[in-house]
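chain below, 506 aa
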Amino acid sequence: MNQIAKPWPALWALVIGFFMILVDSTIVSIANPAIMRDLNADFTAVIWVTSAYLLAYAVPLLITGRLGDRFGPKRVYLIGLAIFTLASLACGLSGDIGMLIAARAVQGLGAALMTPQTMAVITRIFPPNQRGAAMGFWGAVAGVATLVGPILGGLLVDSLGWEWIFFVNLPVGIVAFIVAWRLVPNLETHSHSFDWLGVVLSAIGMFLLVFGIQEGASYDWGTIVGPITVWGLIISGIVVLVVFVVWQRFNRAEPLLPLGLFKDRNFALSNVAISVVGFAITAMPLPLAFYFQVARGLEPTQAALMLVPMAVISGVLAPLVGKFSDRLDPKWIAFTGFAFITLALGLYAVLITPDVALWLLLLPSALLGVGMSGIWAPLASTATRNLPRAQAGAGSGVYSMTRQLGSVLGSAAIAALLTARLAAELPGFDAADQASAHAGGALPPELVAGYSAAMSQSLVLSAVGFGICAVVVLFLAKPKITVAWGDAPKAEVPAASVPATADADH
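prediction:
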């Protein structure tokens, strides 16, 4: 128990790897033009480099949370970290787009093993009155990593080549493995059964849905082959996911998705909000990256520097927000954050034109940083505050899964929307022209206005998503006060003895 009395070193050790896997969710966006050029890939194929990662990341999260409960979060985290690090090497060595997509899928599997363990450890080793600060730190890491990805990607692509956005994970992964091995405690395990039918149904449903949305434009939203159509795949995916939820309701053994957790109002609403956050934040970087690099002709590093205010401000403010989330009603913090983000994206959409002064685009970037700092900690701490100890892994897996599910759909949706808006704004700009421009070819001056308009319009998708989140969090209930709420932590009392809330069984 002495290890658990010092939880912060364990959290520091875990977030090194957590930071790495979240950076990899967005780092590819800035490198897409270089990857398209070097691997001779088209626009849709290069989007799969991100979607394969997100899909393989999202599908297993429900069961990997249970694996942490069953075999211990430390052990599962270390296995996932080893898989992720080795897959990063394979990504960097890829000689064609197919190998890169496959290696990214394996990376996603490693990330899925790791992510639920970080939240589960916070829930299990921090007393309730310290979880806000812990989640603030976790939220800072999540927010900054998501925003740092494109910036780091730009620097690496320009200086060393796109391969190094993956090679850089090797030393980080080794260090993360060593410190987690030494500092993360071996927590108690809980017996679980595993719903393999649920895993299969959720995987099939999500793949059909994502493939249909992302590849729809490639087949003119019509026939793919024989009787198989794009809309047939999308509808089939939705039906399979509905069957999955029904199976979870009537599964007499232990369901993969514990629907009982959603009886807690805050857990349910936080999951809705974080899924939309995943959708919107994944859809956001791509139009910006292509606008800066293709329409304005910036190098990847220059394009990445346009996002520096967002990353710096978010990184500074997020830990402070985490501390306040223990003392203030978190819904107002989250609402303010979402309002700032929606305003910033609306400003981007207005300002993105062929000849706007680039310094003006630093203003919405700064507003985004303020907003991003206010969403991660309030949502995470509100969602997990009342989780019973035996279901910490399952609940953390659900929360992580909903975020990643949103990310997968966001990646597919922005690919479809970008293709549609380019076709609408540049009707004579065919697929070959798009591939040439995205791969670094010169964009004819007469096409810059239409291209910029397509990127501006595509950003509205993210703005609407964050606006929806602002509405959702207004319905969060004020967190219930626990016995330990506001008390000074007692070092001699292990976290395991902190009384659960009255609603812990929900």
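The chain has two domains: 7-185+256-484, 195-255. The chain has 20 helices and two strands.
thats it, cya
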